[in-house]
Amino acid sequence: MDIKQLVNITSRAWAVPILAALHEGVPGRQAPLLTATGAGRTAFAQSMSHLIEIGLVERNPGHGHPLRPEFRLTPPGKIGAEISHNIWTLAGEENQNLLRKSWTLPTLAILHTPHHFNDIQRALDPITDRALSQILKSLEECEWVHRNVDNEARPPRPIYSAANTGSKISAIMAPYLA
Q1: Which residue, 140, 94, 147, 71, is CA-closest to 116?
Q2: Which GO terms describe its molecular function (predicted)?
Q3: What is the value of pTM for the model shown?
Q4: Is domain 1-95 in CATH 1.10.10.10, yes or no?
Q5: pLDDT digit string (tens) for 128-174?
Q6: Is 170 exposed, middle or buried, given 0-12, 13-18 or 19+ CB atoms closer than 10 A?
Q7: Does CATH place domain 101-178 in 1.10.10.10?
Q8: Burial grade of 86 (CB within 10 A; 0-12, 13-18, 19 or more)
Q9: CA distance 18 to 28
């Protein structure tokens, strides 16, 4: 997995919670997954279609009704589901809204080592200045990212690094993004 794949997976808000629920053993039907994740029907359907499209989830052939299909993880989906489950449980219930934001996990993945703002932006190529600054601010507020100013550089530049829970989440993803 590379950073572009991670950005693609997290581009749908409910993709990570769906993968985590499937890893936990929640039956792969719509009703149990909706209950487990708390997603709305439309957002769930979009996220599930996206997961099918990128090859992490597939319809279980021979199971379920055509209007109520059953889904299962593909082999690459099992790896993604394990990572998602570990991250989802580590974050805790109070921070799960933050995990559903598109750029949270890719930003934390980059910050397994300290980086300047421009380095993060280059690594997450399609991200805008505004989106990156907002996600960094959100991650700072919940103390998942630490901002330290490099006063020896001219002009002084901030250096961002994962901290606390953010550091643990970053460590979970780092081996898979090599």
Answers
A1: 147
A2: DNA binding
A3: 0.88
A4: yes
A5: 999 999 999 999 999 999 999 988 878 888 999 999 999 999 999 88
A6: buried
A7: yes
A8: middle
A9: 9
